[in-house]
Design a protein that fits this description.
CATH architecture: Orthogonal Bundle
Number of strands: 2
Number of helices: 5
CATH class: Mainly Alpha
Shape: globular
Strand order of the largest sheet: 1-2
CATH superfamily: Winged helix-like DNA-binding domain superfamily/Winged helix DNA-binding domain
Mean pLDDT: 87
Helix content: 55-70%
Distance between the termini: 18 Å
């Protein structure tokens, strides 16, 4: 399996292997989509906030927050509190939690891309 595929499978497996009580397969699928999107967008120039993530999927902030909180509960996503765009309130910047396995996979991908 290619390192990029291993990274994706590693992220997906964290959700499909640990099922919360009364959690539906559809809810886990939503979490997979959110987690993979956070992973893809977290290093872009514009900070990835709950609101921005919701905009990607056409979801409201409350619904997006519920999905993100499930990922936080699983230890897969970290939220960092920052000032919002207007500077009056706050927002949370989202990042995938860097586990040792995830760091190793990212290094493998970066090493493989250098030779291309």
């Amino acid at each position: 399996m290619q390192p990029e595929d291993e990274l994706i499978w590693h992220l997906v497996k964290q959700i499909v292997d640990i099922v919360f009580e009364n959690e539906t397969p559809a809810a886990r699928l939503q979490q997979v989509a959110i987690l993979l999107t956070i992973n893809a967008l977290q290093d872009h120039e514009e900070p990835l906030t709950t609101r921005r993530l919701g905009d990607v999927f056409g979801l409201g902030t409350a619904q997006t927050s519920r999905l993100v909180l499930r990922l936080v509960e699983r230890g897969l996503v970290e939220r960092q509190r920052v000032h919002n765009r207007q500077g009056r309130g706050h927002a949370y910047v989202l990042r995938v939690t860097n586990t040792p396995e995830l760091v190793a996979l990212r290094h493998a991908i970066a090493g493989g891309n250098r030779g291309q």
